[in-house]
Automatic annotation (TrEMBL):
<protein>
    <submittedName>
        <fullName>DUF4062 domain-containing protein</fullName>
    </submittedName>
</protein>
<dbReference type="Pfam" id="PF13271">
    <property type="entry name" value="DUF4062"/>
</dbReference>
<feature type="domain" description="DUF4062">
    <location>
        <begin position="7"/>
        <end position="88"/>
    </location>
</feature>
<dbReference type="InterPro" id="IPR025139">
    <property type="entry name" value="DUF4062"/>
</dbReference>
Length: 337
């Protein structure tokens, strides 16, 4: 008699349940089955969700872990976790709900601070609790036990196709199914890797030795006066000097709105001759955008949109590999110094 193995999709919010997801994965593997989760995929978006739906449709069981977070919202206002659940229910994949007990004892960083998302979480919990196999847990060990019991019960009462070893099957159907999933996964990875747009860079692109004039304003207080005065200022420098000042700050990604002040502060400190008492120099937005585009064109910085901790979207600056090399070349001390 052949022995089946089952593919189990793990769905949950991610950042607050990393440890719990790992525990569930280990439990599923020790049971002889195959866990599948969001760790295998890039950050959630609508296009990626369409691919995840194909993976859910190939799974035998769907495990939903809920604690204190509702998760990132899709354009329709639902979290991607709830959309995964809805799809599993729609296509008839058995759902095993692991609901965190005593959620009021969770730390603040593992709960929703927005009233609307808290309300959506409670509504989601009410939905999944209606007529579903549900287990409670409060600790990681308790979650392991709950998932093992729920999975054993589901296998006994909700029969699924599962997977059979190639040497135990009279046909190649199972092997072909596995190979197809692997090939589709590799194909999607390749598509995502090649999806970066190609930007045409001018052949006569200005380099880091190009001098530019930073035009802006600064505030200062004249001797004998209490109120500050705002004056115009022009500071001549090179793009290379600006990059040299900025680069160390970009070894970790920085939000776009913080980069301009970093440049202004660095330029002011380096070029202020000491006869100005103020330090609130602010360059024009047009100049800031020009500097951004030029450093991107030189492949020294990368500026991309990414999700923030609060679930929003923002632009973030970071160094490219070439930018890292250029920073080290310019900033590292040598024995001649």
């Amino acid at each position: 008699m052949s022995e089946k193995r089952y593919q189990v999709f793990i769905s949950s919010t991610y950042e607050d349940l990393k440890e719990e997801r790992k525990a569930v994965e280990q439990t599923i593997i020790r049971a002889g089955d195959f866990p599948v989760g969001m760790e295998a995929f890039p950050a959630a978006d609508e296009e990626q969700f369409e691919f995840i739906k194909t993976i859910i449709s190939q799974c035998d069981y769907y495990v939903l872990i809920i604690a204190g977070r509702y998760g990132s919202l899709a354009p329709d206002g639902k979290s991607y976790t709830e959309k995964e659940y809805d799809y599993a229910v729609e296509i008839g994949v058995p759902v095993l709900v692991m609901l965190r007990d005593e959620r009021g004892e969770l730390p603040a960083n593992k709960t929703e601070d927005h009233p609307e998302k808290r309300a959506k979480l409670e509504a989601f919990i009410a939905t999944v609790s209606d007529g579903r196999l549900r287990k409670g847990w409060t600790t990681t060990d308790g979650l392991k036990l709950a998932i093992r019991e729920a999975l054993d019960y589901a296998k006994a009462t909700k029969h699924r196709p599962g997977w059979i070893r190639g040497d135990q099957s009279s046909s190649q159907e199972t092997l072909e199914r596995l190979v197809a999933v692997q090939e589709e996964n590799e194909r999607l990875k390749q598509v995502l890797a090649e999806a970066k747009p190609q930007v045409a860079v001018p052949e006569n692109l200005a380099g880091l030795d190009t001098f530019i004039t930073l035009t802006g304003k600064y505030s200062h207080t004249r001797p004998g006066q209490y109120s500050s005065t705002t004056s115009s200022i022009e500071i001549a420098t090179s793009l290379g000097e600006i990059f040299e000042l900025l680069a160390p700050h970009l070894m970790q990604a920085k939000p776009d709105r913080t980069v301009g002040p970093i440049i202004c502060e660095g330029v002011w400190r380096r070029f202020n001759t000491g006869n100005r008492s103020g330090r609130s120099f602010v360059m024009t937005d047009e100049l800031f955008q020009t500097i951004k585009i030029q450093l991107m064109a030189l492949n020294l910085v990368s500026v991309k949109t990414a999700k923030t901790v609060g679930g929003g979207v923002n632009l973030f600056w970071s160094l490219t590999d070439m930018g890292m090399q250029e920073m080290v070349r310019r900033r590292a001390m040598t024995t001649e110094q």
